[in-house]
Amino acid sequence: MSRIFQLMFKSMIGVKNMRLISAHINQKDLLFIIELINMNKVKSIIDKRYPLSETAEALRYLEEGHARGKVVITV
After folding, report:
1. Where are the chain's structural domains?
2. Among candidate residues 53, 56, 51, 57, the one with its CA nearest the CA of residue 72
3. How many angstroms separate the CA atoms of 42 and 46, rounded?
4. Which of 5, 9, 12, 21 could form a disulfide with 56 if both were Cys (CB 3.0 to 4.6 A apart)?
5. Where in 1-75 does DSSP place strands (E)?
6. Residue 31, pLDDT score
7. What's the angle, vertex CA 19, arms to CA 16 and CA 24, rounded to 5?
8. How far apart are CA 75 and CA 63, in angstroms?
């Protein structure tokens, strides 16, 4: 995530401390994930969807611990 997006999220929700987490992806891992998906062993559970304009509300929902699946921001 770029620094601009980090600052945007901070300003929207008033977060003082935000950390960026990144993964190092390699082809072997991606092929394994594809195999799991093709075998129907991976299931995505989407709890709620929010439009981009309601990102702050989506983050509040996550912080409150209500989410029982993924929370999706749609652009």
Report:
1. 1-43, 44-75
2. 51
3. 13
4. 12
5. 46-51, 70-74
6. 93
7. 170
8. 21
How far apart CA 75 and CA 69 sit, in angstroms, is 19
pLDDT at position 18 is 54
* CA 54/CA 19 separation, integer angstroms: 21
DSSP string, 11-22: HHHT-S------
Per-residue pLDDT of the chain (75 residues; tens, 9 = 90+): 566 666 666 666 655 555 566 677 789 988 998 999 999 998 888 999 999 999 999 999 988 888 888 999 999
CB atoms near residue 49 (< 10 Å): 12
Cβ-in-10-Å burial (0-12, 13-18, 19+) of 41 comes to: exposed
pLDDT at residue 68 in the model: 87
